[in-house]
Amino acid sequence: MSDTRRRVKVYTLNEDRQWDDRGTGHVSSTFVERLKGISLLVRAESDGSLLLESKISPNTAYQKQQDTLIVWSEADNYDLALSFQEKAGCDEIWEKICQVQGKDPALDITQDPIDESEEDHFEEIPETTHLVELPPCELGRLEEIADLVTSVLSSPIRREKLALALMSEGYIKKLLGLFRVCEDLDNREGLHHLYEIVRGVLFLNKAALFEVMFSDDCIMDVVGCLEYDPALVQPKRHREFLTKTAKFKEVIPITDSELRQKIHQTYRVQYIQDIILPTPSVFEENFLSTLTSFIFFNKVEIVSMLQEDEKFLTEVFAQLTDEATEESKRRELVNFVKEFCAFSQTLQPQNRDAFYKTLANLGILPALEIVMGMDDLQVRAAAIDIFSYLVEFSPSMVREFVMQEPQQTEDDVLLINVVIKQMICDSDPELGGAVQLMGLLRTLIDPENMLASTNKTEKTEFLSFFYKYCMHVLTAPLLANTAHDKNSKDNFQTAQLLALILELLTFCVEHHTYHIKTYIMNKDLLRRVLVLMNSKHTFLALCALRFMRRIIGLKDEYYNRYIIKGNLFEPVINALLDNGTRYNLLNSAIIELFEFIKVEDIKSLIAHIVDNFYKALESIEYVQTFKGLKGRYEQEKDRQSQKLNRYRRDARSMDEDEELWFNDDDDDDDGEAVERRMEEDFSDSYEKFMEAKKGNLLSCECFRHPGNFVLNSRITTWSSSVTAGAANGANGANNGKTGTIPPASPAVTSSNSSSSSVKTVALPATPVVKTALVGLVDYPDDEDEEEEDEEEEEQQQQQSPRKRPRLSS
């Protein structure tokens, strides 16, 4: 047997009863030594790899469908199909299969499928009987025919034999002739029997019968039979709908008659499956699998034929973008492209890839850019659906087009800005279109689908482009609505739109690092967002809080310093206080924010919160969060004190070399005296302060008596500069805490009170560390000042129902 090569596509049926394309290649039938028999081989046309190797088994049932399909099952739930490019190739391979099995090539099925459960039925069917004997096709025998068709549905073997009998005798067309007679005579009983017969024939699930029933001269009679369901009082009017209501619109005249016929047939068969036939039960769901396959392959053919007709599609896009095109015509063109894209969803990934590349080459994205900006709501809605097909299939293709747009055009004309404006200007009160567009924008700016392997610079280039040309358009409603630190419009639709924008910005905080951080700082965006905490719509306040929570969740000190400097916890705490004792989602979300700060021990934020807001929060005792923050704050302060105390003790135990250096320095005797006096006085004052702290005293008396120290101008200057330097050094050790410089640094004089007798010396590192303690020791004075300031504020705000703590100067 010589090899015969034909171009085919290999399909397998998946678990969802959908056909998966396994590739395109050339089929041959040849003897395979390993399989010990004639086999079907399909080698990929791209690389010659083996796509299929299947032995033609004598017991396998092969089916020939639609002149270009051969379908068979090799194992349980494993169906295969070869779709031939040419009918001649299909006929030749079919003859080879029939030759191996010893069957007649004129038949469309080679075997009766044998099931173990059917072995008991062999005795019922005489061996000499190859076909089911059908009653004569007469009006008086319709009930008998209906009973026969219904009875064979439970038996696979009898279904096969009945299908062969119906095909061999041209029985279908005779039955449809009886339908027309019954309808003319208004014979309802006969029409009800014909309904049962036609429904049963469909459930035989045979492609060869479908070819007859769905042909142009039969399909409307089939639909007519299915109108007379015995369960209905009055028949449905499906034919009236298909012929009068449903109208075929040709946006561009289709000259190919085969394509026109295929489109009509597919629409009507889809109508039969979706509208006319009842939803199959669990036991009937496989009865119409061939019908599903019939529709699937029809759609594949339609898309392929349209895709290959470049003149047709070129004309479609030319008229779509032509300004002279009438609005009604443009609406039809957009709806055609939308339906065309919907049909493409039946294609396999590699075919769909080729399909969308064809659309991209024809200019689908520039056309959408024009169409989405039009006033017609139907046109815009269809354009958004087309855009969603493109983004879901290949966001990289859309990003590539956007970045290639001419930079000299205005920002408003850019495709992404058109999409953002459509989202912002959605007229739907529920913002259904805006929600859809927000999801598409999130897909486009998601770094997860920016594949570095194909284009290493895609992520960097696109994000830079987006933040430069598009981000200001996205945030414009938010910034406009929060100008002057108040929420200017707080209606429901505006709140919904701002919530969508905040959701996108929160996504950016999570997935973009440098770009969004720079934008937030430059625009002071978090402050503007937190204005929305005052909204009467709780869901919007929660969106604003979620935005801040994502920022804090990054644990980035750059963000933390920005929050502290701007006192951005105040609107959050005010919202908590305004919420009062209500136990709701806002209350829980705010407490979770502070709980996160406590658990993660973010020291800079803890110190800021306790220093500025603890008095307002200490009354909240139903959770231990704020007491926990205070405990963390005290622990850190004690740890720093112990650390500095250890430095002080180490500083006093100088080695002999240092002592000799000081003793031998005759020129600096006066400065040494000043140094020693400072150490002794500071040590005494520090020990007194620590004792006072343990005794819960509010201040250290040794620093309140002005007579303890005599200020010297030169030494005061030296002490202040050293203190500032030490404080800056302590900053790094304390995670960014700002050291406090007291208003007047204590200094010491020698017995000679004249300033000229004191010499400035170059001191080693040890005294610098000790002098830095001056700022820390003076901490209680700062507390006293804060208490005095707060008392004054309380007196000024006695008329206010709520305290608003502020950051002390």
From TrEMBL:
SUPFAM superfamilies: ARM repeat (SSF48371), PH domain-like (SSF50729). GO terms for molecular function: protein phosphatase activator activity. The keyword Ion transport does not apply. Regulatory subunit of serine/threonine-protein phosphatase 4. Pfam families: EVH1_PP4R3, PP4R3. Keywords: Coiled coil. InterPro entries: ARM-like, ARM-type_fold, EVH1_PP4R3, P4R3-like_central_dom, PH-like_dom_sf, PP4R3-like. Residues 658-672, 779-795 have a biased composition (Acidic residues). This is Serine/threonine-protein phosphatase 4 regulatory subunit 3. GO terms for cellular component: nucleoplasm; protein phosphatase 4 complex. Residues 658-678, 729-758, 770-809 are annotated as: Disordered. Residues 746-758 have a biased composition (Low complexity). One of its GO terms (biological process) is DNA damage response. Residues 5-101 form the PP4R3 EVH1-like domain. Residues 144-635 form the Serine/threonine-protein phosphatase 4 regulatory subunit 3-like central domain. Belongs to the SMEK family. Residues 630-657 form a coiled coil.
